[in-house]
Amino acid sequence: MLSHLKIRDVAIVASLELDFRPGFSVITGETGAGKSILMDALGLCLGDRADAGVVRAGAERAEVSAGFDISRIEAAQEWLRERELESDGECWLRRTVSRDGRSRAYINGSPATLTDVKLLGEMLIDIHSQHEHQSLLRRENHRLLLDATAGLTGSARELSSHFQQWQKAAKELATLTRAGDAQRDRLELVTHQLDELDKLGLKAGDYEKLEQEHDALANLGSLLQNGDLALDRLTENDADNAARCIQQALKALEGERSRHPKLDEVAELLDGALIQIQEGASSLRHYLESLDADPARLGELEDRLAAVHALARKHRVLPQELPGVQAALADEKAQLQRSQDLDTLNREVAALEKKYASAAEKLRSARSKAAAQFSSEVLARLKLLGMANSRFEVALTPLDKPAAHGLDDIEFLISANPGQPLKGLAKVASGGELSRVSLAIQVVNAKHSPVPVMVFDEVDVGIGGGIAEVVGRVLRELGEYAQVFSITHQPQVAALGHQHLRVEKSVQDGATTSAVRELTREERIEEIARMSGGLTITAETRKHAEAMLSAT
Questions:
Q1: Which residues of 305-314 are buried (b: 16+ CB within 10 A; e: fewer)?
Q2: Are the C-beta atoms of residues 85 and 110 closer than 8 Å to each other?
Q3: The dihedral of CA 175, 176, 181, 182: what is its sign?
């Protein structure tokens, strides 16, 4: 359940903290008082998009935190455990939006992506908006809603996966069947090209090593000549070499070191330089002696490089890119060889089609049973909502060909009056009737939903009188086994809440602010009287409001 909501610097709310209880909570207030801000703030915690416009004027950052008791929500607990975010049966969602529009989300204090926040939020709370009946006019939503109510969403998702695999294999089979001769010609060419590259045997990095070795052998004479010159300058020139010059410098300073102790440091540096020159000369001498001017090896390198360059030109790539070409051709050859075996591919397509058909039939059967149950429950709600003569049906119409979502088209049909045929919801003439149908469907869906918190945002718009009281009793009934919130303008609904919250707007120091507080029984009487009687509250409206509260 939603246990706590904290809002700071959101729209016209400066600071607000609310504690919630189980059952049915109603939220009321005058038009423009800021009831929608509560929903917007809660939506931010649940991953809705945000911009700098939500930040209260003069503030640097908007912040919303929502605390949930998830001790009975196994799915949410498992989700948090998998991500090492668990927190002793509690879950805190937090969202901040800065003045520059940057937004951050947190789950139990750890940074989180909006995708993760939305995934988790779907397990915690379900929001039914006053505009939701508009989505019911789109037939594709009927199937989604039926599946959600009947717990078939996972099966539908699995069926879609089977369909995609089947169609992909079938498309591949059709393509290969049409292009059989061209495929065989391509396989022959690829096999020949791959044989050439396999014979060359060039691996990643080989070309660079070949060039380096070839350059060294091709310029061996220059290397020997310059190496001998370097040795001569370092140590081997009897008349003038670097080692001898440093030795002479040391000897010249030797007599002065006793008089000038600081020269010891200079002498140490020169000693070190002399050692390095001698060691460097020794290493160079051994390297030059190890060089072998092998004309045969040089010829081998030149032939191999010529072969590499020839194939690189043939494939129109750089020499060092040939290993990548070889790998790509190997993959293509494997694919082409597989495509030539049409019998195997035919069997694969048939197996995938059979797998889809089996899953589709199972889903069709489950949907048929769910449709009858769903229709019965919605019709019962419609009768309570004053549409006693209506008929409601979930129609499953076979499709001309299989689809990703199944074998049937699914549509909600309604007949509001006796003698009228069943029609699609989009053809319902009365807006009030559509509102009641929408509410009945939402309540049935909510009753079967595994989500423990339900928010109804002014879903009773267009409904009044005794029907509004029925709406309130339906929501209160839901509140017996789930936590239910309803933003309402109907006094009959407000009177049936276990908890009553009022949104109030005020002006302080020239700034408009909105606040929310829980009402006492006496305050509830005043609020329900206001909702019933308008601007002037009389003793009669108060008495009527008290009677409405007492009836609960």
A1: beebeebbee
A2: yes
A3: positive
Please report the sign of the dihedral spanned by the C-alpha atoms of residue 513, residue 514, residue 517, residue 521.
Answer: positive
- Both 110 and 206 in one domain: the answer is no
Q: Residues 502, 29: contact at Cβ < 8 Å?
A: yes
What is the C-alpha separation between 366 and 152, in angstroms, rounded? 8
Q: Tell me: do 292 and 204 sit in the same domain.
A: yes
Do residues 214 and 75 share a domain? Answer: no
**Domain housing 296:** 185-339
The CA distance from 451 to 122, in Å, is 7
- Give the number of C-alpha atoms closer than 13 A to the C-alpha of residue 219, restricted to the C-beta side: 10
Q: Are 528 and 512 within one domain? A: no
Q: Tell me: the pLDDT tens digits for 345-385?
A: 889 999 999 999 999 999 999 999 999 999 999 999 898 88
> Which residues make beta-bridge pairs with 24?
484
β-pairing verdict for 511-518 and 61-69: unpaired
Structure tokens at 288: 């030059």
pLDDT for residue 481: 79
Q: Is the pLDDT of residue 98 over 90?
A: yes
Identify whether residues 12 and 64 lie together within a single domain.
yes
N- to C-terminal Cα separation, the chain: 23
How do residues 440-490 score in pLDDT, each as one tens digit? 887 888 778 778 888 888 777 767 778 888 888 888 988 887 899 998 989
Residue 52 in contact with residue 101, Cβ under 8 Å? yes
Question: Is 529 found in the same domain as 511?
Answer: no
Q: Name the CA dihedral angle for 537, 538, 541, 545, rounded to a multiple of 10 degrees.
A: 70
Instruction: Kindly report, residue by residue over 307-329, the tens digit of the pLDDT.
Output: 999 999 999 999 999 999 999 99
